[in-house]
Amino acid sequence: MRLLKPSIALMRNLRYIKKFALIFAIILLPMSIMMSIFILQVSRQLNYASKQKIGLEYNIALTNLSRDIQKHRGMVTVFLSGDIDFYSYIKNNEKDIDDDNEKIRSLSSKYNKQLKVEEQFEKINKEWLEVKNNLNVSPLEKSFEEHTKLIADISDMCQSVADISELRIQSKIENYYLADNLINTLPQITEQMGQIRAVGAKSVAKGNLDVYDREALEFMAKSIKQNMKYTEKSMNVISKNISKKDHIEQPYKEAVKGTENLIFTLNDKLLYPQEIAINVDNYFSYATEMIDKVDKLSLVEATVLQNDYDEQIRQLEFSRNIITTVVVFILFIIIYLFGGFYKSILESILSIKAVAARIAKGDLSERIQLECKDEVKEIGDSVNKMLDKLIESYYEVQKARDLSEKIANHDWLTGVPNRAFFVRQLEEIIEELQETGGTVTILFIDLDRFKWINDNLGHQMGDIVLKVIAKRLVDITKKRGIVYRLGGDEFTIILKNISQYEEIDEFIKIIETNITKPMYLSEAEYSVGASIGHVTYPHEGTNIDELISKADVSMYIEKNKKKSKNIN
């Protein structure tokens, strides 16, 4: 027990809400930290895969640019060697390069936050514009060097993007070789094939092959063979570890065949025969076709790698969402159960406190509802019994009060509000309209021929007539106003928002029509009429006395009109 004294002392000085908050925080804090760390790790992996995907997408665009510039180099080489027919090809190719640049510029802007390569790309674009503008200025050798340097700079940028996006770091061995092929090996092969195309086309265009170009072509052919041997090793690893081998093996075979065919054509048509045995158009087209086979392999490998990144991202996002959902669900369950635990302890106290507060405000309808079976329930039951006694007394007093109020405010015979209630309500309405604006119309109704019925048929029949007329007036008025009995055979109606004389006259005609409908009294048919006067606030009066007086006068004017008609 001594060990618990500090804990007991702490808990005694805290309200229940603070006690549970402290315990809840101690339980929840470590769990939240662990879950956050786990989710953070998944998010980092997701960001890593997304960054690699961005780097791959950017490098694909750079590869397309490099491919078109290689083609441009070959065309310009042929053009400067004397074949002016290639000029139109060059211009079409330059449009492709401009499209490539625009695509890369868009990617640079889109991914600048991740890659930060906008400035580097603009340097390459500037270099390309210089090469493009020097078409008719630079000599053949210089143009070739400028193109080759530009291609090398693009290759360096590919390497830079690969480093920034960490494309070389792969968790799967097949992805490592795919990335290495895309970043290093295949670009080297296509560049060497591109140089074979350019140098060979230049020699074909000139009609002779000098010693320097021969050595360059032989060296590049040898380099291609060495690089293809390396791709053979990487393809063996890739094929063993990917599920859809056919997607990549067939393009690889075509790429190998393309390099072999290009080297064979080079040897057969350029290097070894006594005279060059191919024209420049055929050579350039054939070399381009073989290079396209290697480019197709690059595209397939990029697609495989990109699909793997997409799958990684999908799985990581799914894992993150599942983990987040599970964590949120667990937290919800913990909070829910903890809340239930807290509520079960405080329920008795809060129930008694709430009922006591309502009793203090005069509400005796509430009862203490406790699920517990301890001494607190006995207290609650005792309080409930006390409330039952109090409520009995309260209802008796309330019943007497309601009856008294009804007698004071309603006509005992017809059940409609009486004169006192009419005066009070009219005062309230006028006060409200003085602040908000608007109109109210008062109708004064005096029954014609009622006195004859009351005197000749008896007061009992007269009371029946008053009840029937009151009900008819209430049915006619409905939501448009309130009917009051002032006394005797006089009624009044308060109509809100009806101030136009046409509307008032139409409504009065409806009242007169309904009042004059016959009724059966002592097995005979009788009917009464009505003289109705009206007055509108604030047009015809601004205080209650003035309004009542003018309405009464208006009613008697109508009654006198009817008498005059009857005399005439």
UniProtKB/TrEMBL annotation:
Entry GO CC: membrane
SUPFAM superfamilies: HAMP domain-like, Nucleotide cyclase
Pfam families the record matches: GGDEF, HAMP
Limits of the HAMP domain: 343-395
Keyword tags: Membrane, Transmembrane, Transmembrane helix
PROSITE patterns in the cross-refs: GGDEF, HAMP
Keyword Transmembrane part of the UniProt annotation: yes
Gene3D superfamilies: 3.30.70.270, 6.10.340.10
Protein name: Diguanylate cyclase
Lineage: Bacteria, Bacillati, Bacillota, Clostridia, Eubacteriales
